[in-house]
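Holo prediction — D-xylitol-5-phosphate.
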Amino acid sequence: RKELKVSPSIAAGNLLKLEEEVRKLEHSGADSIHFDVMDGHFVPLLTIGIPFIEQMRKITKMHLDVHIMVTNPDSTFENYLSAGADTLSFHIETALHPHRICSKIKETGKRAGIVLNPSTHWKDIEYLLPVLDQVTLMTVNPGFSRQAHIPLVHKKILELSKYRSENNLKFDIMVDGGVSHENANTLNKLGVDIVVAGGAVFNFENYKEAIVKIKSASIT
Ligand code: DX5
Ligand code: ZN
């Protein structure tokens, strides 16, 4: 297998120095910037949202991978597209008409993704898999960075990646929550393509070193 791609979760960085964080990530070997949006309802915290994405879009060409943890994606998802998201992922637990949201995301030429909480079965989105560009499996209960990875989700990762190869589907599998150089190899072997990294990047001075450590661990 190839090395894992790494998408640092910028909300785990220094929120008072976002431009500096973006510049550091541009030179870090990161494959995209993961942007977590929390609404204070679906998850307890309220963090940064649409206006931040708009401003970030103006200062960088990096791929913006936006993960919305909000209760009402049906009525709000379009704002994230016009703000400049390249990939937009919403939680299946919150969506009333997920197929409609995905179709509209794809109509704008952006990548469509769905996120599953640890407790949600992948079969819930089986019918949607052919139109998805990315499926994110949460390996923590969403809401906070630096929580412990939940290995109980690994069985689901393996089932989904087997289903993907058996059906010749093309979506990327992303894992979000408690990823580090310690579990990168296991995740890669399970069929994961991209990992989100909060603490595993932003707890360190040198982001490039931290990312290399995850990537090289994933193939050794
Ligand atoms: C969890 C967020 C994650 C988080 C990852 O609610 O979706 O993206 O910031 O942080 P770590 O890697 O520290 O678990
Ligand atoms: Zn996330």
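READOUT: Residues 9, 34, 36, 67, 176, 196 surround zinc ion (ligand 2) (CB under 6 Å).
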